[in-house]
Amino acid sequence: MVRFPAGLTLNPDTGGITNVPWSAGTSAFSVVARNNGVADARITYTVTTTP
Question: Which domain of life is it from (predicted)?
């Protein structure tokens, strides 16, 4: 589960992060690519918002 700063949402179909943040904040999340259930690759992103 990803927890973004309040007001932001993740579109599960496109991967886009949308809407307008309600407050300043920083969140980190990872995207994991799997092959037959085994993690092949991982990248971590940090999102910083300012309303």
Answer: Bacteria
Could you read off the pLDDT of 19-28 as tens digits, one per residue?
Answer: 888 888 888 8
CA distances from 31 to 12, 19, 22, 36 (A): 12, 20, 24, 16
Asked if residue 4 belongs to a domain, the reply is no
What is the count of structural domains for the chain? 1
- Whether this prediction's pTM lies above 0.70 is answered by no
- Which domain does 44 fall in, by range? 9-49
Exposure string over 2-32, b if 16+ CB within 10 A, otherwise e: eebbeebeeeeeeeebeeebeeebeeeeeee
